[in-house]
């Protein structure tokens, strides 16, 4: 076991902290490195893994950082990270505010073939951020992680899977934020989530955003909150040529019965396309509540949802939306 501590002033902004040029640990262009049971406190950058650091194994890292806990871009082999604990160890002062700033990132990854993250806790500003690196993007696999009170996963490129993971957001934090850049050239932004839990309290902003050519699939997962906010927003842009897509199948959405909701649970904006099927909602009871708000007539496939008093808002005169066999309070609605 080893501990590295770097001095930081008692301030609440990232700009006022010591921006150390050197990372606490440099593993730049060092493939097949192994790091076990290390604690890092107060670093600006914790571990530098730029260039080809593929094949690296990081296990049991405890870290309190203010810019990037782990920086990756250029790895040409699998990077394995397990039991990462990104947490403000031993700090009960103004630095906690800086630590929670969304500009502070747990794992920042450009090119990485692949990135496996297992049994880890993220408690800072932005848990994982994927972007288009100088030579490509990241292939991500997350399993048994906890994004606890932070912005969870942000993707402007890359693709991956998430399973058995918990997201807890408050205020305007995003559990998942996807917005592909560089399209339609070389950026890929696709994520599949399964058997996971999405919690929010109190929440005011959209919990999941799928924008600009991104593709998100969520299945066999649970959403739990009594707050009035949009769980998922799907909107495509990029000059009118690239859609955003959602596959939302076999999930449960828990809300509060007999409460009015002003925001739709799912919003399908312009240039969006979705398959939304076999989902179970909490009984609506009294008060208004929209399950899905669809802004444009698209080839959306919506079927076999137990809406139980929740309503749809479809565009007037739609001909392309396919909706059938939903279970409502009064029976089954077909087409």
How would you briefly describe this protein structure?
The protein has 335 residues and is mainly β. Helices cover 1% and strands 48% of the residues.
Distance between the termini: 63 Å
The radius of gyration over CA amounts to 21 Å
Helix tally equals 1
Share of helical residues:
under 10%
Major beta sheet, specifics? 21 strands, parallel
Describe this structure in words.
By secondary structure, the protein is mainly beta. It contains one helix and 35 strands. The strands form three sheets. It has a 21-stranded parallel sheet that branches. Strands 3-5-7-10-13-16-19-22-25-28-31-33 form a twelve-stranded parallel sheet, with no helix packed on it. It has a two-stranded antiparallel sheet with strand order 34-35. β34 (about 325-330) and β35 (about 330-335) form a beta hairpin. The longest helix is centred in the first third of the chain and has 5 residues, at about 95-100. The chain is elongated. The model has no long low-confidence stretch (mean pLDDT about 95).
Tags for this model:
mainly beta
How would you summarize the topology of this molecule?
Blueprint: E1 2-5, E2 25-26, E3 34-36, E4 38-50, E5 57-59, E6 62-73, E7 79-82, E8 85-86, H1 95-99, E9 105-109, E10 112-118, E11 121-122, E12 126-130, E13 138-143, E14 146-148, E15 151-155, E16 158-163, E17 166-171, E18 176-179, E19 189-194, E20 197-203, E21 208-211, E22 215-219, E23 222-224, E24 232-235, E25 244-249, E26 252-254, E27 266-268, E28 272-277, E29 280-281, E30 290-294, E31 301-303, E32 311-313, E33 322-324, E34 326-328, E35 331-333
Parallel strand pairs: 1-4, 2-4, 3-5, 4-6, 5-7, 6-8, 6-9, 7-10, 8-11, 9-12, 10-13, 11-14, 12-15, 13-16, 14-17, 15-18, 16-19, 17-20, 18-21, 19-22, 20-23, 21-24, 22-25, 23-26, 24-27, 25-28, 26-29, 27-30, 28-31, 30-32, 31-33
Antiparallel strand pairs: 34-35
